[in-house]
């Protein structure tokens, strides 16, 4: 039984390690050549990944998976109590963070919107129209999701794009150019709750629509994490006996 669980632990974490390496590679690819990535995976344009920096997200997740996979695989193979305990601790920390994030997302949606506004809105003002990849990501998002800015068109007030072009992005006026504040405000009032509103609300609605799938995936990941912690602790305790 000990040998079987040890082998399963090695194989499972080897898969995690390879997955982490893949995500890390994709994250670096997105960072270096984001436009070609979006052309290939255009369907992702309506997902929440478009609101945050996709490359950094993939790099961080990939690096974490690499660390977890290495600790679990090498720790089980070498029967190292230290590495197994580190593996258990890292997975436990991630599990607690995920539970906390889920609670915040479910109970404090307004807080999540405030935090995102504080992080994303300054980026829109500074980088939209300056960084080609960032601009392309937001253009695809606003076109496909039928939204404007994170909250609404006012996110672009005093931005580099508005100061340079004296216009809001055409998506804020239902693809009409030039897009001034009067037209953007009229479209925002006319189509609020129908087509044109902030991307955060649109993405939140999309998440709610697919809440069952998202909940199933989250539950599956949580179950794997709990199983991984239980197996690592079992091996750790058996090494004490040996």
TrEMBL record:
Transmembrane segments: 7-30, 50-71, 83-108, 213-237
UniProt keyword terms in alphabetical order: Glycoprotein, Lysosome, Membrane, Transmembrane, Transmembrane helix
Subcellular location(s) per record: Lysosome membrane; Membrane
Name of this chain's protein: Tetraspanin
CC terms in the record's Gene Ontology section: lysosomal membrane; plasma membrane
Membrane keyword on record: yes
Organism for this UniProt entry: Machaerirhynchus nigripectus
Protein family: Belongs to the tetraspanin (TM4SF) family.
Matches recorded under Pfam families: Tetraspanin
Encoding gene (name): Tspan1
Summary of the function given for this chain in its UniProt record: Structural component of specialized membrane microdomains known as tetraspanin-enriched microdomains (TERMs), which act as platforms for receptor clustering and signaling. Participates thereby in diverse biological functions such as cell signal transduction, adhesion, migration and protein trafficking. Regulates neuronal differentiation in response to NGF by facilitating NGF-mediated activation of NTRK1/TRKA receptor tyrosine kinase and subsequent downstream signaling pathways. Plays a role in the inhibition of TNFalpha-induced apoptosis.
SUBUNIT field: Interacts with SLC19A2. Interacts with NTRK1/TRKA.
Gene3D superfamilies linked to this entry: Tetraspanin
Highest taxon of the lineage: Eukaryota
Topology in membrane: Multi-pass membrane protein
The UniProt record lists the keyword Transmembrane: yes
Main location: membrane
């Amino acid at each position: 039984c000990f040998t079987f669980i040890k082998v399963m632990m090695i194989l499972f974490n080897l898969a995690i390690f390879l997955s982490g390496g893949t995500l890390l590679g994709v994250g670096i690819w997105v960072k270096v050549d984001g436009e070609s990535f979006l052309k290939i995976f255009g369907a992702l344009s309506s997902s929440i990944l478009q609101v945050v920096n996709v490359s950094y997200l993939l790099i961080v997740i990939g690096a974490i998976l690499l660390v977890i996979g290495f600790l679990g695989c090498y720790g089980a193979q070498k029967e190292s109590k230290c590495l197994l305990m580190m593996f258990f601790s890292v997975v436990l920390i991630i599990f607690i963070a995920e539970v906390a994030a889920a609670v915040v997302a479910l109970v404090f949606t307004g807080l999540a919107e405030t935090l995102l506004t504080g992080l994303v809105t300054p980026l829109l003002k500074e980088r939209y129209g300056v960084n080609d990849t960032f601009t392309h990501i937001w253009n695809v998002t606003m076109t496909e999701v039928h939204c404007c800015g994170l909250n609404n068109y006012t996110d672009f007030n005093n931005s580099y794009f508005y100061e340079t072009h004296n216009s809001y992005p055409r998506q804020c006026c239902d693809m009409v150019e030039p897009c001034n504040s009067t037209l953007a405000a009229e479209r925002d009032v006319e189509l609020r709750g129908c087509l044109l509103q902030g991307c955060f609300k649109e993405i939140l609605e999309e998440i709610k629509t697919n809440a069952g799938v998202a909940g199933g995936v989250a539950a599956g990941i949580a179950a794997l994490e709990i199983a991984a912690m239980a197996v690592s602790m079992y091996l750790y305790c058996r090494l004490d006996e040996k």
